[in-house]
Amino acid sequence: MGDGMRGARKLWAVIRREYEERVRSKWFVVATLFGPLFFGGIMVIPPLLAERGQGKADGARIVVVDATGAGLGVQVASALAGGALGRGTPPRVVTATGREVAAAESLATRLVVADSVRGYLVLDSATLAAGAARYAGGNTTALFDMQRLEGAVQRALVMWRIDQGGVDPELGRRLAATTVRLATERLTARGRGGSGQLNLFAGLAVAMLLYVMMFIYGIAVMRGVLEEKQSRVAEVVIASIAPGRLLLGKVLGVCAVGLTQMGVWLGASLAFWHWRAPLFSALGVPAPGFTLPALEGGTLAVLLAFFITGFLLYSGIFAATGASVNSEQEAQQAQTPVMVLLVSTIVFAQSVLMQPDGTLARVLSLLPHSAPIMMPMRMTVTQVPTVEVALALASVAAGAAVSIWAAARIYRVGLLMTGKRATVAELLRWLRG
């Protein structure tokens, strides 16, 4: 009993030392404060720039070369006036016949090169027949502008075809302006679960957050082990505490640092969301009208369990990596297989989000190396059976136990080994003890 209490006190001392050392560092303070500012900027700056960019854009800097002979260019210019490419100033329309198109394009190209116009749009017989138009300019990578151009050409073409069919022009304009906005809402066994699209983004955000935290703090564990090995501090420490307990204390201490940072980020995000209306109003930008997905206490507890077990799994692997090498350069090479495990998980995130109940999503949610990321993401976007959640959590917990056990074996021998990088055969021999 006394030995157990002493061991527990030593473990707690290691956890507290690792936690306090990292929490007091300037890097932690900067990263913790910068995180909410960065994510808040992502929400505020894009709509603010878009709002101001609409007022600064000049539609007169677009040239429409109309070779349709049907006056389609005038309708396109009218549709573009007031859009993202200009407010109230329609583009200049140049009417050309089939032989004059090349000359008109050549002139427009020179104007673009001279920065007199942003680009030019060519409408010809192919536009009337198949809806094909051509655009050249310096803003072709501006996807929003290109979507506006396509929309303007499409509406003008629809109105022209309606007019050719003998439909009343006013009715044709109303038909061409008709749009559909599909609102999606997630339904669960507990009732309504908010916007379906918002849950999709929330699921991706959860996956990326877990991925980044496991990567950053897993690397921190590896570097901490490597520094102790290089400074020979471990030789003194392991004289008073078992290597396995020392490793577990380091991993749990770093895990507590990650949880602290996530807690600060979550609290700041909720505070920002609560005060979003006056903040966006002060900036002159409409506040988002959607609501955040509802997460119950049980769900949050399960997500936390996945993070902790997943962190233990990857931290054990990173710690073993740090104990088996002797330099930072060797560590960068040795960590490649671990990075492959993490990256191979996140690359399937989009596929899993598209089909959260598909075979690929179910399989990845049960594998120990991918379940800490995939299962929380699935739980955010769809209703996952309780049996699958339990199996996934058990899988990750078992993987974490094996990882910590194997890391402790390698850690015990590797800390005292210097001079050369351990081979695979040597690592296997260390595991057999």
Describe the protein in words.
By secondary structure, the protein is α/β, with parallel strands linked by helices. It has two domains: 13-48 and 192-432, no CATH class; 57-176, Rossmann fold, CATH 3.40.50. It is built from 19 helices and six strands. The strands form two sheets. A four-stranded mixed β-sheet has the order 2-1-3-4, with helices on both faces. Strands 5-6 form a two-stranded antiparallel ribbon. The protein is elongated, with a radius of gyration of 30 Å.
Q: Could you give a short description of this structure?
A:
The protein is built from 19 helices and 6 strands. It has helices at 2-23, 26-56, 72-80, 101-113, 125-130, 143-164, 169-176, 196-231, 233-237, 243-274, 276-283, 297-324, 328-334, 336-346, 349-354, 359-364, 371-381, 386-414, 424-432, and strands at residues 62-66, 92-95, 119-123, 134-137, 185-188, 191-195. The strands form 2 sheets. The chain has a 4-stranded mixed sheet, with helices on both faces. The chain has a two-stranded antiparallel sheet with strand order 5-6.
Elements, N to C (H/E): HHEHEHEHEHHEEHHHHHHHHHHHH
The tally of domains stands at 2
Main sheet record: 4 strands, mixed
Supply Rg.
30 Å
Shape: elongated
DSSP summary: helix tally:
19
Order of strands side by side in the largest beta sheet? 2-1-3-4
**What is the number of beta strands?**
6
Summed over residues and divided by their number, the pLDDT gives a mean of 77
- Supply the helix-strand structural class: alpha/beta
Uncertain regions: pLDDT < 50 for 5+ in a row?
A: 83-87, 188-196
Could you state the oligomeric state of the chains shown?
single chain
**Straight-line N-to-C gap:** 27 Å
